[in-house]
Structures are given as structure tokens and as C-alpha cells.
Design a protein that fits this description.
- This protein is mostly helical.
- Helices cover about 70% and strands about 0% of the residues.
- The chain contains nine helices and no strands.
- Helix 2 crosses helix 6 and helix 5 packs antiparallel against helix 8.
- It is globular, with a radius of gyration of 23 Å.
């Protein structure tokens, strides 16, 4: 749960995303377009056909893990390691996003609403991470000779801004993850009930019997 949010506030958030009927029109347009990818052989792979379950939940651990670790290295004052981890997360983002969109096609109306907001929040978080990465790359490093006070101050401000961007991105990614968890575990998106081999056939007569016998 995001810091500062109560259970009731989270329930309100979930309820509002589920009831966002204004998204139904754009969702239908997107569903038709993304459906072309989902119906292709590549779409089948992205949906996890070779492994028997969606790939998106597994793929998403790479950018989330890399960006979370980047925050740790920022706290340890190791900006180069943090920059490389942010770059790793950005490299893992395109296949993760594509797999998520393919999964989204196979959802119902309410799930598609939540899925669109989930994608928008995560997209904003990833964009902030990309801005942070670019700022880190352009941040002036210590050059040869004496470093002026103004140059040192500019480098410090640039580094602080890059860290702020990545922290904000991490917060949004966390919120998007909460919506993704709600989508999968509460709404059951792309979740099939397990098939139990040799399970007894449901019998309404036995079900109504107090001791389970006719």
C-alpha cells in the first residue's frame, strides 16, 4: 500500500478505476488495434503460450527490481551503479509493456478499465525513469583541473534532480503495481481456475444433503 493511504482510500481508488466508464470507448478502439498483435504468433509468445501462463507478471519483475535497486544505490551514494540499473530497467520495459498489452486484450470490460489506468500510471513512471537516466548521463562530471564552485553546484543540482525524478517514478510504478495486483488477484484477469484431475462431478442432490450422501 502506498505510504499515507488507508485501506478505505485504496478501496475508493479501486472502485473508481473499476467504474471509469469513460474509458470504454477508447478501450474498444485500442482492443481492436492491439488485437492484431495478440492474434499473431508473436502475440501468442508474449501471452505465454509456450509456458502455459502469461509472461507479463514475470517480465515486470526486471524493471521493478532494477529501479528499486537503483534507489538503494542512490541512497548509498553510488550514482553510476544507480544509472546503470535504471538503464537496465528501461531496456526491459518494451517487452514487458507489449506482454501486458497482449494480456489486456483478453480481459472483460471492467478489467480493461483498470488495465488502462494501470498502463497509464506505469507509463508515466517509466517516462520519469527515462528522464532521470538522460539527466544522469548529461550530468557534468568532474573534469580535469580545478572545479569551480558554480560547476560543482550545477552538478549537485543536476544529480539531485535526477534522483527526484527516479524517486517519483518509483512511487508511480509502485502505485501501478498495486493496480496490477488488484487486476489479477481481485478481478481475476487472465486467471483460470485450477483443473483438478479426477475431481468428483458436482451433484446438486449431494450438495443439498447435510452429510454429503444421498
Amino acid at each position: 500500500m502506498p505510504v499515507g493511504m488507508t485501506d478505505s482510500q485504496m478501496e475508493i481508488l479501486y472502485s473508481r478505476t473499476e467504474s471509469a466508464t469513460w474509458l470504454d470507448g477508447p478501450a474498444e478502439v485500442l482492443r481492436k488495434r492491439v488485437g492484431r498483435l495478440a492474434d499473431s504468433p508473436i502475440g501468442a509468445v508474449l501471452h505465454g503460450a509456450p509456458v502455459g501462463h502469461p509472461l507479463h507478471p514475470a517480465l515486470v519483475t526486471v524493471p521493478i527490481g532494477a529501479w528499486t535497486a537503483a534507489g538503494v544505490f542512490d541512497a548509498l551514494r553510488q550514482p553510476e551503479a544507480a544509472r546503470r540499473l535504471i538503464g537496465l530497467g528501461l531496456l526491459a520495459t518494451p517487452p514487458t509493456v507489449l506482454a501486458g498489452w497482449v494480456d489486456w486484450v483478453h480481459t472483460d470490460t471492467v478489467q480493461r478499465r483498470v488495465g488502462l489506468i494501470h498502463a497509464a500510471v506505469n507509463g508515466a513512471g517509466a517516462a520519469l525513469m527515462a528522464l532521470s537516466y538522460l539527466r544522469r548521463r548529461r550530468s557534468p562530471g568532474p573534469g580535469p583541473g580545478a572545479v569551480t564552485r558554480s560547476a560543482a553546484g550545477a552538478a549537485t543540482r543536476s544529480a539531485a534532480g535526477a534522483v527526484t525524478l527516479s524517486v517519483a517514478g518509483t512511487v508511480l510504478i509502485g502505485l501501478g503495481g498495486m493496480l496490477g495486483g488488484h487486476l489479477a488477484y481481485s478481478l481475476g484477469a487472465n486467471v483460470r481456475p485450477p483443473e483438478v484431475p479426477n475431481a468428483p462431478v458436482y451433484d446438486p442432490v449431494l450438495a443439498d444433503s447435510p452429510d454429503g450422501t444421498a
